[in-house]
Structures
1.
Amino acid sequence: MASTTATRTGGTRSGQQPKSKAKEHTFAWEGRDRAGKTVRGEMRAGGIAVVQSTLRRQGIAVTKVKKRSYKKGRKITDRDITMFTRQLATMMKSGVPLLQAFDIVAKGTDNQSVAKLFMDIKGDVETGTSLSQAFRKFPLYFDSLFCNLVGAGEAAGILDDLLDRLATYKEKIEAIKGKIKSALFYPVAVLGVAFIVVAVIMLFVIPAFKQVFESFGADLPAPTMIVIALSDAFVKYWYLIFGSIGGTIYFFLQAWKRSPKVQMIMDRALLKAPVFGPVVEKATIARWLRTLSTMFAAGVPLVEALDSVGGAAGNIVYLQATKKIQQEVATGTSLTVSMQNAQVFPNMVLQMGSIGEESGSLDSMLGKAADIYEREVDDAVESLSSLLEPLIMVILGTLIGGLVVAMYLPIFKLGQVV
């Protein structure tokens, strides 16, 4: 205690303000307990001296202390958090203590960013912070829904059950997102490759043909002249074309991310799109139902649960509808009537919700409705894939085939003359 007091006095000398709490780091230590047995572990503290003094009070003679350094790893993804939730739930159900479970998960990952995140959370829990509050310090990875469910599990003493339910929820949501991404990735990737191929043809292939055609000294067919003119413009202004396309995509994505007005326009357009619209709508409804079912089953009050449901749906149209539903439910209107007034849910969902409210099994009925829509998403993605493949082949064949035919028309004409 004396040394601690002296340090604080020195820190406030000459009228200076006390320094803020030192930044904590993770230290790996090794020592011997009272029985002479070698023990090892990790501790989060402000310095090596703090680690040594803490272990001495526990009767451990410290022989080695080393600060753990974490190399910069890969970006932490939703998949990493989902896997962590499942692992944590499984270990807690198996009786593994919470802090030891964090150690096991952190040491079992090959992503140093993930390991550092889990050790930071473990350090907060070791100092007496609740698990939900420790998660709330990292909102980039743990949203309010995640923290609310963990908090409900801690309050009710069923943290292992809630983590298991939360892991199942995140796995289902990740599965839906994965199906939507896979459905959209194929056409986007093919169109991107097609643009690169056309650019190469315009920049390198057609100019070579142009030199050959100029040596003929004959009139060229109209399609060939049009393609050569486009190629000349492409060669002359290629940097403007690439820059404008890249800039447009970048600014559009930024506006979509930051502007609520643009989000509303695009989300409405996605829901009404002729090919992708039904898939996006079914996936959004499935996420909405799954989220509300999970939170309601966890004992979270309905009005409070709706705070997280709208954002989890991933569509601003349903976010605004959820806010309207929440206001009506808070004034005493039933959930089903409020959902009907929002005019964004199909009749099947409303009927199953009504049955659930009347029978007192709302969470179960919402979960079954979510299962139905998740299956419909699977079927819609398969149908979409089978529809897009021939459509994309027709588009690519018309585009690239038209360029090839336009370039070979003069050669065919020359052959007929000869």
Note: Residues 1-21 have pLDDT under 50 and may be disordered.
2.
Amino acid sequence: MEYKLRKVEEREITSGILKASFKMWMDTVEADVVIVGGGPSGLTASKYLAERGVKVVVLERHLSFGGGIWGGGMGFPYITVQAPAHEILKDFNVRLEEVEEGLYLANSVEVAAKLGCGAIDAGARILTGIVVEDVILKENRVCGVVINTYAIEKAGLHIDPLTIDAKYVVDATGHEASVSNILARKNKELKLEIPGERSLWAEKGENSLLRNTREIFPGLYVCGMAANAVHGGYRMGPVFGGMFLSGRKVADLILEDLKKGR
């Protein structure tokens, strides 16, 4: 290899980025599914949807995806996953170590990186630095999201947002359940109550998470910790089996609805 780079002009850099960005955004104004939150459940769902040919856009407010996985447990870079959810991590080529029968250990940094890569390789589009500040609500159905940049939100600037139309929206925003809370707060006539999550009880939290993963309003699904926050379930700490299964479940539910033409 020759260690000498091609001469590059500044205008080439700028024009290349702008052309690709405008093309990308024109292809993003409509999607089959918009997943709000690039954490473990959202990324899992996006992979299983995208590999079935569903047009998926994942919106993450931060510049990195993975949610709370990166920090593992209290900053120690490991998470635990119980059977059978470990099979999902195998789909993402994550290395696992069985530490107790049916309980597996995974490196948190590896998990976050491979979840994102797995979703992208399956065909999902992940956009970082994007916030959802509202939903599109028509004829008693959520049919898209209202978006802005995280930088604009943080700066407190009054700049009008843009939108993405979608057949389904998934609230995968974690503990905040921000999309569900927006819908409830702005449309009080719907009488949606969002109690928030309860204190930590791993076993109860994991099992209730899967029951709570479902459609809560026409066009709006919840998964991951957002599902427990919406239904008043317990939190779980650094065990992620329920999160991965929740992502898989919401993907299966949406695939079934797409098949029915809902």
Note: The radius of gyration is 19 Å.
